[in-house]
């Protein structure tokens, strides 16, 4: 446990060094350190986990090599082709469509802690590198990820795969925000990570791994409230926190293109649908809700969320 915590600190240090540097060689070095530090975190002493370790190592090494070659060639000749190679290498690391197959192969053998880090912290350096690249081509990958990530989640029954497809959809939002030269993606990723952290804690506590588990588990009232708020926030349902981060994103993207905004709104509606489908067992099996409902506690939580929302909106306006 101590060794894994040490590796998490190594990942955080590599992220801090990357965002404080302006050299492409440092980015490549931090990507490699990030890769080597995450491998022990993935190891859960399971035979089926070996395939995931090998898959992750091969894919990440390939994308890092692609990034190294592309950046070196770009400094030599400054051709747009080499910037495209760098962009593709980062899209592979982000597991965006159509480079998402490797993360699906790993989903079942990873524990929830490793999957949480993979979907949140591990995305920081590739997203930061994409801020250094201005390319209109990335919009097509972003829109494809936001739409197809939402559509593929509809046919998934396992919670882990649903979270992966949801993450792919959110990555589409963040890369579009990056492409319009806004720093709001940092706040977007931070809010998304916090919501996902709370949701994964609830899943681990109740040992929920598929949609069918929601019918068999008996949640108490507080857990039902937390699950509902977390999943509605992930989907972007108002008035939860996830809605405000998407609303601010839409207001910024509308200034660039209405078509892109419409596609993103459609993907968000699809997200709301499949999260509501997951939550339906909780709604139908809700018993004695009014008896156990703590209105004072919920009012306090609502005011806290409102204050956080106002703070984030002020920060985003300052950053833009």
Automatic annotation (TrEMBL):
Membrane topology per record: Multi-pass membrane protein
NADH:quinone oxidoreductase/Mrp antiporter transmembrane domain span: 22-270
Annotated EC: 7.1.1.2
rRNA-binding found in the keyword field: no
Transmembrane segments: 6-31, 52-75, 81-105, 112-131, 137-155, 186-203, 240-266, 302-319
Cellular component GO terms held in the UniProt record: mitochondrial inner membrane
Keyword presence, Transit peptide: no
Major location category of this protein: mitochondrion
GO molecular function, one term: NADH dehydrogenase (ubiquinone) activity
Reaction(s) catalysed (UniProt annotation): a ubiquinone + NADH + 5 H(+)(in) = a ubiquinol + NAD(+) + 4 H(+)(out)
Places the protein is found: Mitochondrion inner membrane
GO biological process: mitochondrial electron transport, NADH to ubiquinone
The entry's keywords: Electron transport, Membrane, Mitochondrion, Mitochondrion inner membrane, NAD, Respiratory chain, Translocase, Transmembrane, Transmembrane helix, Transport, Ubiquinone
A Pfam family this chain is assigned to: Proton_antipo_M
Classification via PANTHER family: NADH-UBIQUINONE OXIDOREDUCTASE CHAIN 2
Family membership: Belongs to the complex I subunit 2 family.
Primary role: Core subunit of the mitochondrial membrane respiratory chain NADH dehydrogenase (Complex I) which catalyzes electron transfer from NADH through the respiratory chain, using ubiquinone as an electron acceptor. Essential for the catalytic activity and assembly of complex I. Core subunit of the mitochondrial membrane respiratory chain NADH dehydrogenase (Complex I) that is believed to belong to the minimal assembly required for catalysis. Complex I functions in the transfer of electrons from NADH to the respiratory chain. The immediate electron acceptor for the enzyme is believed to be ubiquinone.
Name of the featured protein: NADH-ubiquinone oxidoreductase chain 2
The species this protein was found in: Bothriocroton concolor
Gene this protein is translated from: ND2
